């Protein structure tokens, strides 16, 4: 009895087709069907083996992302500083042009000589302030550049 049941089990297991691959079947309408069971007019596909990529240490990725964000932030600050510097240089040039080395043209509203002297002093003061601003902005830009270059 044991032999008959063993024989019967072996026969049943051999009668089922074992999936040996992936099959592609295209019907009359052009519909494509993929299956692991072979059928009429189905072609077996020889697929390349699956490549398993080892996991990436997420700490390294997070560090790189943080460094990239910091770099982008520094670059944005650098662009803003350069924009401020160019605006300040432009305005300084305008004020120096008006100042004319301490001998600006008298305006029609400056019949009173003291008004003229006050404007000359105000222009001199503005030149000094803008030169100081430029010095501070350029120093800040240099510090930012140094900060970016350090790892």
Structure, briefly:
The chain has helices at residues 2-15, 58-99, 113-149; strands at residues 22-26, 32-35, 43-45. With 151 residues, it is mainly alpha-helical. The chain has a three-stranded antiparallel beta sheet, with no helix packed on it.
Task: Give the SSE map.
Elements: H1 2-15, E1 22-26, E2 32-35, E3 43-45, H2 58-99, H3 113-149
Antiparallel strand pairs: 1-2, 1-3
Helix pairs in contact: 2-3
Class from secondary-structure proportions: mainly alpha
SSE pattern: HEEEHH
Can you list the strand order of the major beta sheet? 2-1-3
**Strand coverage percent:** 5-15%
Count of alpha and pi helical runs: 3
Helix content: 55-70%
Distance between the termini: 79 Å
Main sheet overview? 3 strands, antiparallel
| Topology, number of strands | 3
Search tags:
single chain, 151 residues, mainly alpha, 3-stranded antiparallel sheet, 3 strands
Overview of this protein structure:
- It is a single chain.
- The protein is mostly helical.
- It is built from three helices and three strands.
- A three-stranded antiparallel beta sheet has the order 2-1-3, with no helix packed on it.
- A hairpin with a 5-residue loop joins strand 1 (22-26) and strand 2 (32-35).
- The longest helix is centred in the middle third of the chain and has 42 residues, at 58-99.
- The model has no long low-confidence stretch (mean pLDDT 85).
